[in-house]
Structure formats: C-alpha cells, structure tokens
Amino acid sequence: MSKDINELVIPEDVRYSKDHEWVKTRGDNFVVGISDYAQDQLGDIVFVEVPEVGDQFEKESEFGTVESVKAVSEIYMPIGGEVVAVNQALEDSPELLNKDPYDKGWIVEIKPTDPAEIDDLMDKNAYLEMLKGIQS
C-alpha cells in the first residue's frame, strides 16, 4: 500500500462495505463507487467494466470489475437495486477512480430495492477501525 492509513480520504457523508465500496445518497437514489483504500491497493486503474442501465443487483452481488496494472478485481453492490445511471466518463478515463474516487470516479447510481440496507454499512469510524485491523 502506498498511502499510510492517515493519508486516506474517508469522507463522513458516505457509507462503506467490507469490500471497500462506498454508497452516498443522491435524492431518492444512491451512488456507488470504490474507496480511496481500494483504489490505492489496486494501483493505476486502466479499465472499468460497468453494468447497463436497467440491470438489477442483489446486495453483495458482483456488478462489475476494475482492472489495474496489478490485478483485476470484482466490485460488489453494497445495497440491492436497479442501475439508473453509469459513469460514462470511466470508459475513456478509468484513472478517475484513482484521482477522485468519491466524486468524478463514481461508478453507478442505483434506485435501491430497500433504502434501509444503507444502515447495514459502516460509517467513517467503523470503516477506519476495519482498515486498522487489516493493516496490523
């Protein structure tokens, strides 16, 4: 890992999964991406495979892949729902996941099947504790 745990960007206004995806509320929908920790572990991201608008996913099911110079990693849906938008910019600029994972590097926007599932995800402090456990 190139970043120290104290250098990681971990916003307060998002929730985190154990697989290092994040979820942020956008109106009635949720936006999903990968955390700063995940992009840092992957290294330079060269390709992102995203689902189609209209695709339905259960919570914790695989919804795409991220390919870096080091590896190919699956990405998992932190909460169930229907894809209502995908970040088209990632097709030409997958490095947005490295540069700006929480804003320009979002992956999909979903209409949740059960919005309460966000309550099962970790807040910033719980996610930070999990990362400290990984590093020790």
What is the topological layout?
Layout lengths: L14 E2 L4 E6 L2 E6 L1 H7 L2 E5 L6 E2 L4 E7 L3 E5 L4 E6 L2 H4 L3 H4 L8 E5 L11 H12 L1
Antiparallel strand pairs: 1-2, 2-3, 3-9, 4-6, 5-8, 6-7, 8-9
Describe the structure.
By secondary structure, the protein is an alpha+beta fold. Helix content is 20%, strand content 32%. It is built from 4 helices and 9 strands, in the order E-E-E-H-E-E-E-E-E-H-H-E-H. The chain has helices at 36-42, 89-92, 96-99, 124-135, and strands at 15-16, 21-26, 29-34, 45-49, 56-57, 62-68, 72-76, 81-86, 108-112. The strands form 2 sheets. Strands 1-2-3-9-8-5 form a 6-stranded antiparallel sheet. A 3-stranded antiparallel sheet has the order 4-6-7. It starts with 14 loop residues before the first strand and ends with a helix. The model has no long low-confidence stretch (mean pLDDT 95).
